[in-house]
Amino acid sequence: MFFRYKINTKFLLFSIVLLAIAVRVIYFLSQPFPLTPDKLLNFYPDENVYYSNYLLITEKGFFRALIDEQSLWAAPLNSMYIFILAGVTSKPILFIRLANILVTSISIVYLYKIAVRIFNVKVALLSSLFMALYFPLIEVSPTLLTEPLYILFLLVSAYYVVLAYENRNYRYFIISGLIMGLATLTRSTYLLAPFFLGFFILVHFRKNPKMLKGLSIMLISFLIIVGPFFLKNWIAFDRLTLNNGSGAVLFLGSRMDTEGDEPPYRGKNYDTFEITKPFTHLQSEGDDKLKEVAISNIKAHFPDYMYWNVKKIGRLLVGNVFYWFYPYQDVVGYYHNSGLIKTFLKLANMLMVLSVVIFGWYEIIRLILRKGFKNPIALIVIYHTVIMLPFLTNHRYGLPILCFISMFGFSYFFQKEKGELA
């Protein structure tokens, strides 16, 4: 009986992954995704940044590209990933889009593995199904953006963190630290996450020598991956950072006329070049100028800025009406222009994610009140939410942790058979 149940569970997971691939391929085929470099700016402008850094590597070679200031335009790993995949085929953009569909679908397996260990099979299957069908996750899958790779690294590193917590095995601490490093090289906002986890490990396990040694090993492994890039940028560019760009998102997150929201959602332009000219927002000089203006904005209307940061939690985890019905003002405008079926799917996705976030945070808070800050996945969710709030925050940045929140949300309905960390 157990064997048959186990086989059926694996079959269900396999079916969910196949479903994820299918809906992502259908979405990709239904949208005018550009397949040539000259059209990248017309769809997701950030794709052009990563592709430009890939071209830099092809033109100058890997090591010479690293000491070119353009290498500061974005965290380095996504462009390296594009460089590796582009060498496989004569149609690199098409191949990378298809590869990222596969990457985001395979990531579901690690969400399942985490949920099984912390909760149970039912929670694992439901959260996997959520990840397969939630539209914003489908939306970013065929892109050259950081989300596909970052979500994979975040889930894999979290899985090994859970194993390290449960087994006190140094091998798992090493693997988790290394993959956290790769996640950080994909998106630098994850930079402080290992230290955030480390603080609570020190608090809760200060009398456990094995956990403390494991923490040290994890941090060393993390720094082995991330440290050389910090050192390179410090020596070559006198900038102790992984990449530029924080100035732009801090400025956009502090704009009074958009309440820190995406300017196009509010009918505005980004207008960063008006501040940075003759430099771009990705060049060091432009990045520094935007930081200065952002700090001035924050000081000038600090109470408003703090209020927006509270609202940004909703934008990060659920999105807002400006996102869901863009470019229309509300659901009525969207319905008249897009039809009943698309409107129904939008509203269904909104209701689904809103429910997941409400029940998920309820369970996270309940868990913390019962057991303290011991669950590493809850800590990752808290870190990722808090670290984003000062900056421009939209639903896309919240997608990686929404996968984790879905586990907690579904666990509300299945309280039995939880693991040690729950």
Outline the structure in words.
The chain is mainly α. The protein has one domain (2-411). Helix content is 72%, strand content 0%. Helix 1 runs parallel beside helix 6, helix 9 (170-186) packs parallel to helix 11 and helix 17 packs across helix 18. The radius of gyration is 22 Å and the shape is globular. The mean pLDDT is 95.
In short:
With 422 residues, this protein is an all-alpha fold.
Present the secondary structure layout.
Elements lengths: L1 H29 L14 H16 L1 H5 L10 H10 L5 H27 L2 H13 L1 H6 L6 H21 L2 H17 L6 H12 L4 H29 L8 H7 L20 H4 L7 H17 L1 H16 L3 H4 L6 H8 L1 H32 L4 H13 L6 H17 L11
Helix pairs in contact: 1-5, 1-6, 2-4, 5-6, 5-8, 6-20, 8-9, 8-20, 9-11, 10-11, 12-14, 15-20, 17-18, 18-20, 19-20
**What is the general shape?**
globular
Rounded radius of gyration (Å): 22 Å
Count the E strands.
0
> Tally the helices: what do you get?
20
Helix/sheet category: mainly alpha
SSE run: HHHHHHHHHHHHHHHHHHHH
What ranges have pLDDT less than 50 throughout 5 or more consecutive residues?
A: none
Percent range for β-strand residues: under 5%
Could you report the average pLDDT, rounded to the nearest whole number? 95
What is the helix fraction of residues, given as a range?
Answer: over 70%
N/C terminus separation: 27 Å
Provide the domain count.
1
Largest sheet: none
- The quaternary structure here is single chain
Give a quick set of tags describing it.
422 residues, mainly alpha, 20 helices, 0% strand
